[in-house]
Amino acid sequence: MKIATLVKTGDGPLWIIPHVLAARAAGDQVVVLLPAPHHRDSRVARELLAQGVEVLESPAPCRGAGPVAQLAGILRLRAMLRELGVDVVHYHLYASALAARLAALGTPITRVHMVAGPLYLDNGLIRRAERVLCRLDHLLIASSGDIGSRYAALGVPEHRLRTLSYGVDLDRFTPVDDDARHEARTALGLTADEFVAVCVAYFYPPKRLVRPGQGVKGHEVLLTAWARFVERGGQGTLILLGGGYGEAGEHYRERLRTWSATLPGADQVRWVDSVTDVRPYYAATDINVVSSWSESYGAGGEASACGVPSVSTAAGGLPELVDEETGWLVGLGDADAMATALREAAAARRTPAAARRREAARRRAEALLDRRALSHEVVAALHDAARERSSFPGGPRRRAAVAWSMRAVRGVTAVAPASVAPRVSPAPGAASARGLTAAPPVTLARSSIQAAVHGLAAVPGAGRVGAVAGRVARVAWRTYLLRTDPVRYARWIGVRLGADCRLIEITAATFGTEPYLIRLGDRVGIAGGVRFVTHDGAASRMRRRHPDIDVVAPIVIGSDTIIGINAIIMPGVTIGSDVVVAAGAVVMRDVPPGSLVAGAPARVVTDVASWEERMLARSVGTGGMSPRRKREVFLERFAGELDAGRDDAPVCYG
Predict the structure, then answer these.
(1) Which CATH architecture has domain 178-366?
(2) Model-wide pTM > 0.70
């Protein structure tokens, strides 16, 4: 079998190399496609060429090119894949996925998308587009359980979805003894007794489409947390290991460095550029810190393999790696909770509890991140996908029929082709019916979808095509409800809702993969980014020994409860009535009625009655005003605070 591995850059994704070498060891021919100049001048290309792997210039994706140039590059990539005689195209990173999907569409080439990180899925527009585009993948390999759950919520069927991490070289990243730790500290100019924390991450500039103005690795949050750690009496050294990613990343890094110089504890922060070997830093550190807004496992994987506990945000797949056994988990952007976790880590670094955390971190890495075994499983998955594709019933004719059915029901107002649409004579008096009340838009939209499906089903021998059309119609209907009536959408997927619930900016991922296990009382409010998790994805690490294991539990929310932005509700949790769940909270235990909880894991901070008194004292009294009037009042009221700030200063979180 011949495999083409496509990735948009040669700067960073060294994790493709084990897959390439494992495929070659299995007897496959492998060619790696990188855009110019990365196909020659990049670390990935140099290491692959040194191993004797063929590396070619990929005509797509073209960074910085316009739509016409991108399309031309995709057409050239299509011709290139055919000329190479590729059986499987294995692509990583989202720009590569878009190019490979289109380039191989309509060819016998099997398309396999391996998702390195979930950042692009945080953008609502991309997420809606991906609901359709992910159906072009014959197999999707998620690098964390979180990514797998997100794509399952987008409609990827179980037989086309695998969860396999990129993994870590467990022979290379290993725990060290006290002598090796002392030697590493001496080499880095650190004392034997000081508290050391390290964050290993590139400085990625803020993205325009995802969390604009915020660096994806959350360095602002970490620097703010470190300042609060020092203000509360903490002492030690924070090592920020990583350079800027590209020119924009370097500018962003320097801007942060200038801003943070005025914060408490700035003299205890070391800024270290990127290095080829991070192991000496893990050997010297007491704690690894991951402050990301979006992540798969990130640097937490290598730290765990080295037996280093982590203080981590509850982003993406990190809760699968970091918990109370292996470190400290805090809410997204919660600098105060991160400072508290750093203080606890500093106080406990020489205790038996710290030793237990180090051992647990290594065990977790061995269970989830064995790169050698995972690489062979990825190659086996590529072979399985190619075999399943080659045995596709009906061959090209069936695929053409499926494509036709998708065109027949595209959009929420699709109409069956004239040749198969049912002929309906107008009812008597229809021309004079303008005075009657029109049918609701939701009814019309659903009727249009149903008309297309019923018309398609009327075609002789089109039963299979009709089934596919029905599935596409359901996706269209689900998308329409998400945009127009989120409460009705929630009921449609099985959530049990009381009266007068408010669901703000919900997505297909909000209620997870078992929405029928979620019950909401009356007048429940849910903000954007909230996630209900009814199953424990960490149980998957035990499936090799216990194939049938599945940990699932319902979630019950009482009446008059508000759940803040980006909060996560874990399996089996019951939240009482009159509760406020703060933004970014990770609720892992039951919450008593009338309380306010915050943090990760969430704890009771105060009672709702006291919180309401404080809210009334802070109220600006504009609740009944129009948005335009509010703007005028706010600008006048807060003019002093707004004018006093620096325009170029990064925002402090938490």
Answers:
(1) 3-Layer(aba) Sandwich (3.40)
(2) no
